[in-house]
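To the team - S-adenosylmethionine complex, inputs and output below.
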Amino acid sequence: MLNPTLNLQTAPGHQVLAAAGKRILRPGGRAATEKLFQWADFKPGETVLELAAGFGDSAIALAKRYGLYVVAIEKNPDSVARARTNVAAAGLSDRIEIIEGDIFDLDRLGKQFDYVLAEAILTMQSPSGKAKILQGVRDRLKPGGKFLSHELLAQNNESEIHQVLSQVIRVNAAPYSKSNWIAAFETAGLQVQQHQTGIMGLLTIRQMLHDEGITGTALILWNILTKPLLRQRIVQMRQVFNRYKQDLGYIIICAQRL
Ligand SMILES: C[S@@+](CC[C@H](N)C(=O)[O-])C[C@H]1O[C@@H](n2cnc3c(N)ncnc32)[C@H](O)[C@@H]1O
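Output:
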């Protein structure tokens, strides 16, 4: 359902997509997240800190499928409320804690985790913001703990893509190239073990069907068709994704705290 207070002209791209009914808001979708989970090799009872958890989709998968304990931080109060409702509906309130907070204040948590998971959030930060969060991630990991990351990739034309994308999604979105992502991780003391890149599938029908199912995709398409402002914003985003499809994609990285 459309949030009546959301200004569709100015809202960040992920809120526009959520208003259209999208639940999975990461460039490589569920399949890329799944790959990260395989690399992680979780053991029941281990702990995960999730940054910018959105509606709690990944946190629920981690607790339900792998028996993990998850602390998830999310800044948007509406998303926090929705994530808590989803967690309760999944019967996982004893395994998942959703904290309303800012990922720039990770030191407030005061404990360390076996894993940190962050999807579609580092890209939205300036270079110094990325470095600060990565330092926080490193400090919140136990020695030998793993950081699981899923972000936007700009294989070439980083600065042009930064400008055009930021305009269209109304957020300072600065995807890095593969080598720049890896360098940023290693500078923070996170040794990259595995990585994989792929196409930006957020608005492709194929990825949408995989991520949102047939009913979810039908609802999203209906909302796009029937709500002109929503349509305008999503068409603009899709045009930019298509224009840069050779360079724009996702990257997933599994890195270990040294
Ligand atoms: C693109 S969405 C990704 C959500 C989720 N990780 C997913 O992959 O579906 C970005 C999320 O980051 C949250 N966010 C943005 N800045 C944040 C911050 N400083 N601290 C915590 N959450 C933040 C937003 O509210 C939004 O839910």
